Amino acid sequence: MGPPEESSSANVGGTDWRTPAEMANYRTTPDYATTVEYLERIATAYPGKAHIEDFGKTGEGRDLKIVVASKDGLFDPDRIHASGRTILLVQNSIHAGEMDGKDACLALLRDIVQDRDRAKLLENVVLVFIPVYNIDGHERRSAHSRINQNGPELAGWRANATNLNLNRDYMKADAPETRAFLRMFHRWMPDFFVDDHVTDGADFQYDVTFDIDATADVPPPTAKWIRDSVTPELTRRVNAAGHLAFPNTIFLNDDTDPSQGLAFHDNPPRFSTGLMILENRPGLLVELHMLKDYKTRVTGNYEILRSLMEILNESAAALVALNREADLSAANLGSNGKHGEAFPLCLEKSGETSRVEFLGYESTRFPSEVSGAPAVRYSSKPWNTTLPMQTGAKVALSVRPPAGYIIPPQWTSVIDVLAAHGVTFQHLTKEWTGEVERYRCSGMRWPGKPFEGRFPILRAGNVERAIGEFGTCTLTVETVTYRVGSVVVPLSQRLSKIAIHWLEPAAPDSALRWGFFAPIFEQKETGEAYVLEKLAPEELAKNPGLKAEFDRRVRTDPHFASDPTARLEFFYDRSPWWRAQRVGEYPVGRLASLDGLPVS
Ligand SMILES: [Zn+2]
Description:
Layout: E1 11-12, E2 15-16, H1 20-23, H2 32-45, E3 50-57, E4 63-69, H3 77-82, E5 86-91, H4 100-114, H5 116-119, E6 125-130, H6 135-138, H7 176-188, E7 192-198, E8 208-212, H8 220-240, E9 245-246, H9 272-278, E10 283-288, H10 294-314, H11 316-331, E11 343-349, E12 353-367, E13 374-390, E14 393-399, E15 404-407, H12 412-420, E16 426-427, E17 432-442, E18 472-482, E19 487-490, H13 496-503, H14 529-542, H15 544-556, H16 558-561, H17 564-573, H18 576-579, E20 589-591
Parallel strand pairs: 5-6, 5-7, 7-10, 8-9
Antiparallel strand pairs: 1-2, 3-4, 4-6, 8-10, 11-14, 12-13, 15-19, 15-20, 16-19, 17-18
Helix pairs in contact: 2-4, 4-10, 8-10, 14-17
């Protein structure tokens, strides 16, 4: 399977060019130092085609690196773009126990720089790859990192050195690795992105599964190219190379019963490929199957990357045009004011299914004595069938984009994340008072345990375990004064979708959901009981409506009736002293127009 067993690349000029994994017959994968040493040998031997550069440091201080392969020694991103070639960025080992893509990229780079046939892959494409993204996790090597996975002997750890899952960090950008990635990404501005993983989940015959988002939040021309061209071609070419590909990263509707079919999964921007939707670039998620042996997985990963490079070579000009169009349409999102179209923030399954051919393994569902619940046992006998797959998506949440947002200057961590994403903004040069739309939010409930270092109020159904309850945010039109230094974010920019997703409170990975605005929900003053005991009778005497409401509550709500604090707070919560707290008042304003704002 995959690259020829006795590749002509193995011995060139009397030198053994086998990768460390090939030399170990795929029993092991090299540590970071050995990985870099191999890459440096190639870059030194082929300086006109391969080049390595640093793009930042991990939390533990290791150097993050990209490797660039270019046919003519052109390693400058601006000049590459000017040449009309496309840039493919491949990320490996974000989950550092899943290092198949790293070993595949080492072999692919070698074959490209040494092999005449593979050299064609660089005709219209420049390959940029991150050999290991989560390096600190990669160096935490153990035989017990990946309980689900069939080799290699030692594997790295899923999270980074502060135990953050970097593939949940793309929107909030807490980790130094994420910050470095975003800077590197915008310097290179790739035309196509790949994130290489290994599955967790069901057992089936496919060794290569993959997914490229082409749903309602991807511009229709790009989505059409992905659906009609890239996805079927990747499947065909990987299969032709002797592997078995399925164009969906498989999740089951019922983990214990594959016959219930394949589930829908949305792709919020906390994930790498979810972020790509907001960056207006196609993002390919590759998942090699965890139970296939390491050689099958590495060569399968090699073949999907090779196939993708072939496809990008054939359609380089078309892809550049699609991306330009996607950037322009993003920069237009805020221009239509009240007549603008709703922008989808979140998708969910529509209930529409299609029957797909599926090559699984026969399985038995049995009552488990261990768990006390139904469980599944897979056999090694092929189960070639058709299954229902959730193929329909509908918009679960949308918003009409404003012309721009205005953020008070004190919300520095919120503004800092926008800056890390490269979103363009300006500052008020003097105080400004004007009409804006603002949200009032209430009913939020926070989870009782942390998720990715925070206590987020995430959407249910996002495969996350620590989720709170979002409550509601209602828009009001108000006249508000914003101080000098307030940040004005126009949506007339290619990264408008980042601003919308970060600043619309209900968006699946908004600043509010991740807790950046948590203080606005805190009550800072409370009424002393003896003060409220004086206030309450006065208010009851003055306000018959209030008295009726209080009496009814006492009559109908026994918990309330028997809770002295709640009975006193009833009056506080309806007083001007409560309104002065401004609890739930979301400080970001939605601007209908940016005309006349004093900014620079
Ligand atoms: Zn993974």
